[in-house]
Amino acid sequence: TGGVSSRGTGTARLKTLSPIPLESIPRLTQAEALAAASEQYGLAGAVSALPSERDQNFLIADARRGKFILKIANSSDALALLDCQNQAMRQVEKTVADYRVQRIVRSLEGADITTIHSARSGSDHWMRLLTWLEGAVLADGAARGPVLYESIGAGMAKIDAALCDFSHPAMRRVLQWDLRRAEMAREHAALLPQARRAHVERLFSQWQEIDWTGLRHSAIHGDANDHNLLVVDGRMAGLLDFGDMVYSATVCDLAVALAYSMLGEGEPLSVAAQVIRSYQRHYPLTEAEQRALYPLILARLGMSVCYSAHNRARNPHDAYQVVSEAAAWDLLGKLECWPAEDALALIRAACAPPDRASSARAQ
To answer: What's the mean pLDDT in 90-110?
Structure first.
């Protein structure tokens, strides 16, 4: 397991910055990456490139020490932001025993973050080495079922609880994938065909009605998509890629996980209910969070298809950037027939104590 994909590489499907300056993207060769891994971390072995939209990432397979991810950051990424991600991973590792995150490997000089120079771009970039976690990602066709959904709900709840008191100056940033800032994606709705544009505008209209002041806020992972959920033996075993960490409404973390867990499912809201029920047992949602959850799920899907349209207009030859666009539209089509009040009733039933939930289902 652990084949080449975007797992743990600081990227996710459907995503782009708006836009990413091309000169900020590192453009090192595999030989340069391996030389840096040898010089700064003492690694040797095989190297292969992993896909990324804004960074550069390499799998280093050292026969003696194992596998690692060498992450070379976009030149626009501040040192403090990378430190924020590192410290958040350490917080989760220290607090959550049964769900794994990648570890930061210090350089031979004891540094968490080092630098590398790209001869091709002429820029210096921050560089980190992370451990490789064995397993598959959800997008790689992991077997679906109640055990998996329960583990996703529990995992996201425990990670959110672990980060609820995490603080770092760099977490309060403007991020285009923060659900609080869905208007940044909405700007690209004009690129959609008229019928689809109207559909997406309805989603954003529901998002506009969210009362953010009534929601708990904290640092969140922010990108529990199907390439970042690590699955082992049919259960979520860990969470990859803290590159979209941001201070936002805590419930946004669950909304993102739900949006991607439902992709490709015949009965997506049944899946959502199982994930929510498990999340509720470990980190209960407030009434305000229950009301906001469905509009947030829809907004995340709306953001995804808007950014996909933007990606296609900007770079029509890069199929990677829109690889799950069809699945997102398929899910939106299935959810369109569910009125918001019915979805809220399902969410409230999933959050109800077991005796009350059984009574509600019986009625």
So the answer is: 97
